[in-house]
Design brief:
Length: 511
């Protein structure tokens, strides 16, 4: 009943009084049911299953059970996971302080409005809207969403649209490659465990060509490279760095169903709402966390010291890899090994805003379209274009994935833009592709205190590494972020839920 009431009216706080009005029974049984209901609401609220996000008329004492933890907590990092944890803890009555190394909140949420519309340099898509808590928060705030249509036209470098039969054949072939790697995992697990996804796919491709397709045509071979680039987009890294055995470790776990949605106002409005009223100290780079005593001592690069009962670490995986934060005592060997085994992936974006929409006639109503590369080496640069146009603003966002991410590091922004324009001119030879009147190029590889977009399982890693990283220590040291969410890594939703998860651990802790 409680979950049904919450899902039908998630803009309002679900109180015990509201739930009691739906208990249609008389006598002492009603008293018993109401007592049980009180515990159920407390259980669901503390765990972030109901009464999360931005609601109207939130009572001062939001948690019904007065026995939960109400001490002091320091949250390190003001990204989505850190702010969601801090927001939840403060609402529960905890004393919360957020320390952020950068000069702004948001972390990898970084929206750009220079073109006249909101285009995020980081995440901007909700992957699966049904029961997704981030989708619910968007509805709470009345944020505009655009449902993404799944159709994706594929265009080669001569401007030809790939025909549907060829597309279906190569997609089937590619899926067979992926499925056959699963068979290899079962029969040769000890061998596959040492292979990268690139190596494993190469082996299966050779086998399939011998058994089924013999050899792909030139066009089909190029189309296959597009699918490889799309896989690198999903993984967040070149395939030679990704585990063949565990690259899809969360595939069997429940994900959020439904259509994907483009957030027209970006994720920043959610971040800003979470930050309201929080004690956030910017420009505070944490260098040491000492949890050896009864309370936790945190020091920053300027020599400032902060003390709290508990600390949540929500910094990006790259910060943990670089060991810029000293832990006293040291983290366990298992946790340090998992930090090493997980990869810090990077996807770059190139936004191009034009005065005209020259792609509409060929692409139609599709929200994105793919570029078929001429070579394997060329596949990662502008492999996919998202049409992010809104009203009178015509804009595309090109993705840079795989080895191309390292390839563009030596280029200037105008050179990268010119590379993308060259691809577009080849794809639309009958159109006059103009110079963009606005553009931006992301540089997540060099963003101070971030240097990544999302995590992946490295060749020596497994899904267990996400769990190891999420393990709390001595009920004083906690970890959150997308790289600690095995089921929903690589997503803003995963980061958000990890923050609620750690808040729940703290609120239900003994001290």
């Amino acid at each position: 009943m409680a979950l049904s009431l919450w899902n039908s009216s998630y803009k309002e706080y679900l109180s015990l009084e509201k739930c009691i009005s739906y208990v249609v029974v008389r006598g002492l049984v009603r008293v018993t049911i109401c007592e049980i209901l009180k515990s159920v609401l407390d259980f669901l609220t503390v765990r972030g299953r109901i009464n999360f996000g931005i609601m109207s008329k939130v009572p001062r004492d939001t948690f019904l059970n007065t026995e939960h933890f109400k001490g002091s907590v320091i949250v390190i990092g003001a990204g989505c996971s850190g702010l969601s944890a801090a927001f939840q803890l403060k609402r529960a009555g905890c004393q919360v302080k957020v320390l952020e190394a950068r000069s702004e909140i948001g972390g990898r949420v970084k929206d750009d409005k220079s073109s006249g519309i909101c285009i995020s340099q980081g995440p901007q898509i909700i992957t699966g809207c049904i029961n997704n808590p981030v989708y619910i928060i968007c509805r709470q705030l009345g944020l505009p969403l655009r449902i993404l249509r799944p159709k994706c036209n594929l265009i080669d470098q001569t401007g030809e649209l790939i025909s549907e039969p060829i597309d279906q054949k190569v997609e089937l072939y590619f899926n067979l490659m992926l499925e056959s790697t699963e068979e290899l995992k079962e029969s040769e697990k000890h061998i596959v465990s040492k292979l990268s996804l690139k190596d494993c796919l190469s082996v299966r491709k050779d086998d399939l060509e011998m058994q089924i397709f013999r050899e792909l045509t030139e066009v089909e071979g190029k189309l296959l490279q597009f699918h490889m680039a799309n896989l690198e987009y999903a993984c967040g890294a070149p395939l030679e760095r990704v585990s063949a055995l565990h690259w899809n470790q969360n595939e069997s776990m429940l994900q959020f169903d439904g259509e994907h949605a483009w957030m027209e106002s970006g994720f920043a409005p959610i971040i800003d709402k979470f930050a309201e009223g929080l004690d956030i100290q910017l420009g505070c780079e944490v260098t040491e966390i000492d949890y050896s005593g009864d309370r936790v001592q945190v020091k920053d690069r300027d020599g400032n010291e902060f003390i709290a009962d508990k600390v949540i670490v929500t910094v990006p995986l790259t910060v943990l890899k670089k060991e810029t934060i000293r832990f006293l005592p040291e983290l366990s060997d298992a946790k340090k090994s998992s930090i090493s085994n997980l990869g810090a992936g990077i996807i770059e974006k190139v936004m191009l805003a034009f005065n005209v929409n020259f792609w509409k006639e060929k692409v139609g109503e599709a929200d994105f379209f793919g570029r078929i590369p001429d070579t394997e080496k060329d596949r990662g640069l502008a492999c996919l274009f998202y049409d992010v146009s809104f009203k009178e603003t015509h804009a595309l966002v090109a993705l840079v994935v795989g080895d191309a991410v390292d390839g563009v590091k030596t280029l200037s922004d105008p050179e990268i833009v010119e590379c993308c324009l060259e691809k577009l001119r080849n794809m639309f030879p009958d159109e006059k592709v103009p110079e963009p009147h606005r553009y931006f190029v992301t540089h997540w590889n060099s963003e101070t205190h971030i240097e990544m977009t999302y995590s992946y399982v490295g060749v020596n890693g497994s899904g267990v590494d996400f769990d190891n990283l999420a393990e709390s220590v001595d009920e004083k040291l906690y970890f959150a972020g997308e790289a600690t969410n095995r089921r929903l890594s690589q997503t803003v939703t995963g980061a958000f839920i990890s923050g609620l998860r750690e808040a729940r651990k703290i609120l239900t802790s003994k001290t």
